[in-house]
Automatic annotation (TrEMBL):
<dbReference type="InterPro" id="IPR052530">
    <property type="entry name" value="NAD(P)H_nitroreductase"/>
</dbReference>
<keyword id="KW-0285">Flavoprotein</keyword>
<dbReference type="InterPro" id="IPR026021">
    <property type="entry name" value="YdjA-like"/>
</dbReference>
<dbReference type="InterPro" id="IPR029479">
    <property type="entry name" value="Nitroreductase"/>
</dbReference>
<comment type="similarity">
    <text>Belongs to the nitroreductase family.</text>
</comment>
<dbReference type="Pfam" id="PF00881">
    <property type="entry name" value="Nitroreductase"/>
</dbReference>
<keyword id="KW-0520">NAD</keyword>
<keyword id="KW-0521">NADP</keyword>
<keyword id="KW-0560">Oxidoreductase</keyword>
<dbReference type="GO" id="GO:0016491">
    <property type="term" value="F:oxidoreductase activity"/>
</dbReference>
<feature type="binding site" description="in other chain">
    <location>
        <begin position="137"/>
        <end position="139"/>
    </location>
    <ligand>
        <name>FMN</name>
    </ligand>
</feature>
<feature type="binding site">
    <location>
        <position position="44"/>
    </location>
    <ligand>
        <name>FMN</name>
    </ligand>
</feature>
<feature type="binding site" description="in other chain">
    <location>
        <begin position="15"/>
        <end position="17"/>
    </location>
    <ligand>
        <name>FMN</name>
    </ligand>
</feature>
<keyword id="KW-0288">FMN</keyword>
<feature type="domain" description="Nitroreductase">
    <location>
        <begin position="13"/>
        <end position="168"/>
    </location>
</feature>
<protein>
    <recommendedName>
        <fullName>Putative NAD(P)H nitroreductase</fullName>
        <ecNumber>1.-.-.-</ecNumber>
    </recommendedName>
</protein>
<dbReference type="InterPro" id="IPR000415">
    <property type="entry name" value="Nitroreductase-like"/>
</dbReference>
């Protein structure tokens, strides 16, 4: 059991996307515990429209090789140092979670499934944060590359919607400001003039 325990609010407002990891691996057991809790995400008709391809511990090197072959096709012509530099963004995370959703032919269901899987991903990110594990949801173009999909065992009718990089970090990035509630809320039945008068 994780010793830390942030409140829901603390986790939501304190989480940052982590893009610089320190190379420390993430334990498979921690990942599985996080995923076991994250599945309690809302999803219509309990379709649970997700499956995960995870790489951690001894499988990290294998996924890094796939990422190298995919993103640096000419890597064999480069020096070890050049390859290592280009690969840094892929070699420092401590684990990878690829989130795969079914692509329902019906638009409503497909959007619902993407929405549900997004809440599932947010759960993973918040629960990981509570373990002191940072993460970043990434959507590089190669997620749709047929060769990459094939290497991950993604089937026709499925889509990888997220490459989640997870890991430990030394620096907390600054918060990116968000709009305040009053900037995005319109109270039904009230005009702007009425709102101004209330101030
Ligand atoms: C659907 C989605 C796709 C994203 N894709 C990327 C990405 O490809 N590369 C990246 O660096 N960050 C990506 N992000 C992370 C955002 O950049 C990050 O959430 C945003 O800058 C706000 O920062 P914060 O999460 O620390 O508040 C993505 C986030 C979402 C929700």
């Amino acid at each position: 059991m994780n010793e830390q325990s942030l409140s829901v609010r603390e986790a939501i407002i304190g989480r940052r996307s982590i893009k610089k990891f320190n190379g420390q691996p993430v334990d498979r057991e921690d990942l599985m515990n996080i995923i076991n809790d994250a599945v309690w995400a809302p999803n219509h008709k309990n379709r649970e429209p997700w499956r995960l391809v995870v790489a951690s511990e001894e499988n990290l090197e294998k996924i890094q090789n796939v990422l190298r072959d995919t993103t640096i096709p000419n890597w064999q012509t480069l020096s070890n140092e050049e390859v290592a530099n280009k690969m840094q963004k892929f070699t420092t995370p401590g684990a990878y979670v690829f989130v795969v959703v079914p692509e329902d032919v019906r638009q409503k269901q497909r959007l619902e499934d993407y929405g549900a899987a997004s809440t599932f991903i947010q759960n993973i990110q918040l629960l990981a944060w509570d373990y002191g594990i940072g993460s970043c949801w990434k959507t590089p173009d190669f997620l749709d590359d047929p060769k990459f999909r094939d290497k991950l065992g993604v089937q026709h009718g499925e889509r990888i919607i997220s490459m989640l990089q997870l890991g430990y970090f030394d620096e907390l990035p600054k918060a990116k400001e968000r709009k305040k509630a009053k900037e995005i809320v319109t109270f039904f039945g009230e005009t702007n003039q009425e709102e101004d008068q209330e101030d």
